[in-house]
Amino acid sequence: MSQFSYEQYAAAQERAANSANSVKIGWFKLSPNQEAVVRFNISALSDLQFASVHTVKTTDGRWMKVSCLNEVGSYSDSCPLCTAAGEGNADIQKVSKKVYVQLLASYKDPATGTFSAPVPVIWERAAGFSKEIATLLRDYGNLRDILLKVTRNGSGLDTRYAISYAVPTVYKPELIPADFGAFENFKIEKHSYWEKSAEEIEHFLMNGTFPEVAKAEPAVSKNLEQVIPNKAAEAQIEKDLGFTAPAPAPVVEPKVEPQPAPAAPATPKRFSF
User: Fold this and answer.
1) Does some domain include residue 32?
2) Into how many domains does the chain fold?
3) Is 137 exposed, middle or buried (0-12, 13-18, 19+ CB in 10 A)?
């Protein structure tokens, strides 16, 4: 279908604008003795996201998280990171189970006592934290409907977090509106850890870095230097608008007819007087 309505066009434009202007999702972090008011994006335990990850060190000294290739609760040599950690590689940590909690957080300024504007963040915790979430769900029901107060106590290995009910008469619900639009189409594997193949992991273990992802260069016509459109981008646009664009007309180069060679100038005649 080559035709589309204004509504379809406007909807596609809006999706593109929302993608370009999407809010960056940060991390939930508190300093020792700091507190924040939060609204969890959780109505049931099924809203929690879990992953088994390794923390690895690159050649430039950075630490990053990579998804484990083994199934949860099992061990095999299908995950080279598990093998490397088991062999004592100091740059590869053993697998750990994590839970990733989506929430909106308003941080309290210790100096003024005021709260910041709410921001969308991910709270990474050990998978066992899900039991505490289960208790909150049992006590308060849908956590999207209430505000909770989180306070950090201690530091380092002694860090503890206290979560309590934020009394509405003190912490007004409008402090954090229940708007979780920032998490639409959110993918945890694009935010909190990397997903790599066994071949890519083997490359990392040998070189200390993962292989670079090749970037496709736009093809260029040798004669007209015409950029050929990206087919994947075209397909996505067609999908968004719900139609298939007609194939572009082939480029026809102008045919140049050979011109006859100019006639040699006539030799002037000489006259004798």
Assistant:
1) yes
2) 1
3) middle
